[in-house]
Amino acid sequence: MRLKGEVALVTGGCTGLGRAIVDRYVAEGARVAVLDRSVAGLVELRKAHGEAVVGVEGDVRFLDCHREAVDRCLAAFGKLDCLIGNAGIWDYMTQLVDIPDDRIADAFDEMFAINVKGYILAAKAALPALYESKGSAIFTVSNAGFYPSGGGALYTAGKHAVVGMIKQLAYEWGPHIRVNGIAPGGILGSQLKGPEALSLQNRCISTIPLDEMLGKVLPTGRVATAEEYAGAYVFFATRADTVPLTGSVLNYDGGWGVRGLIDVNLGAQLDKHYAK
Ligand SMILES: NC(=O)c1ccc[n+]([C@@H]2O[C@H](COP(=O)([O-])OP(=O)(O)OC[C@H]3O[C@@H](n4cnc5c(N)ncnc54)[C@H](O)[C@@H]3O)[C@@H](O)[C@H]2O)c1
User: Fold this and answer.
1) Ligand 1 site: residues with CB under 6 angstroms?
2) Domain around 236
3) What is the tens place of the pLDDT at every residue in 194-229?
4) Among 34, 36, 201, which residue has the most ligand 1 atoms within 8 Å of its CB, making it the best to mutate?
5) CA 238 distance to own-chain centroid
6) Residue 268: pLDDT over 90
7) Contact 36/42 with Cβ under 8 angstroms?
8) Given this model, what pLDDT does residue 267 score?
């Protein structure tokens, strides 16, 4: 029960990583408000967690939706200790050359409106309550916040922008509120969708064999599940263990940044020496 008595607000908490964070936070003793556009997902959450969760239907592209989520969180639980900006979409690695001229501006606007503006508006709406609680904010980044090949130019640029936002807010909000990011790699169990402007709104990342593609090249040898990612969010929200933690982004991606370019499977050497 590492989060007993704590209150969090999670955007995009209905499926994938966000849902795993909500489940884990409740198991750790927290109460959680969720802002998500999935009505069915919010009903599911209520069924699973009852009074421990308050669901707010809304779109992260609008400040009013974030304000309503914060208000409902405060009305239900009396405070907000931790904002988790997490709702996002992916561009399915669509290369710039393949985006038609008549769609590029809309595709950019949609990607940035959800993945970047959605976080900035969440931060704006949650600021007074976080100031009051001397709380913290955690934003979901991605391996694409650091490296190419985790998305196309739209997704990669947006996630890099999020890293900049985290550093700036950590600077602006200290010493009152800590601001950090977690940058997962591929997530098993996610239902990540794409932008409508690229006709990718019904595509689901679960149709891509992520484990098969990445397991061979990642130093960890496999892709983690949404549940396996959730523990870092508990740690980042644990006040007593994170006193010095602000302005940082955890590379939490199976080793994207340290994988070999020539020999991707050096661990096989260890097997040669030690496998019985
Ligand atoms: N899936 C991956 O492999 C992966 C890898 C790295 C980072 N991420 C990041 O993880 C985060 C969570 O994604 P996920 O993989 O769990 O995807 P997901 O689609 O399973 O979950 C995203 C949630 O956000 C909600 N959402 C999307 N757009 C919204 C909007 N405009 N307004 C309100 N709610 C909205 C969805 O309804 C859903 O509940 C995203 O920021 C994503 O970029 C995902």
Assistant:
1) 12, 14-18, 36-38, 41, 59-61, 86-90, 114, 140, 142, 184, 186-187, 190-193, 205
2) 7-274
3) 999 999 999 999 999 999 999 988 999 999 999 999
4) 36
5) 17
6) no
7) yes
8) 80
